[in-house]
Amino acid sequence: MSDSIHVSDDVVSSIAGLAVTEVDGVAKLTGDITRDLIAKLGKNNLSNGIKIEKEEDLLTVNVSVEIKFGYNIMEVSKEIQEKVRQTLLTMTGLECKTVNVRVSGIDFA
After folding, report:
1. Coil vs helix vs strand at 38
2. Distance (Å, rounded) from C-alpha 9 to C-alpha 85?
3. Burial degree of 99 (CB within 10 A; 0-12, 13-18, 19+)
4. How far apart are CA 95 and CA 78, in angstroms?
5. Tens digit of pLDDT per residue, the chain (109 long)?
6. Quick check: 39 and 76 in contact, CB under 8 A?
7. Reported pTM
């Protein structure tokens, strides 16, 4: 008998999104217009700004965020990369080959 477990991309995206929002200095996840519209309609928006690509058992995670004004962009971005890697490994057993961070803006609020 061959058992298998499949974790959907939506679940992986939500876990990554939650990890990102826990990083100090992150104002919010930013996504494309379609995801923003879905979020406004009441769907879970933790995966907003997260794109997952799978290559065998390795993940590439693309993250788009706004950083709070006054925080070091490089330090926050590196912390995002580490937090996403560690959280996904802990919760799913999946390893990230790459975590790309795109800073789409600065939150001056």
Report:
1. helix
2. 15
3. buried
4. 17
5. 788 888 888 899 999 999 999 999 999 888 754 444 445 545 455 667 899 999 887 999 999 999 999 999 999 999 999 999 999 999 999 999 999 999 999 999 8
6. no
7. 0.84
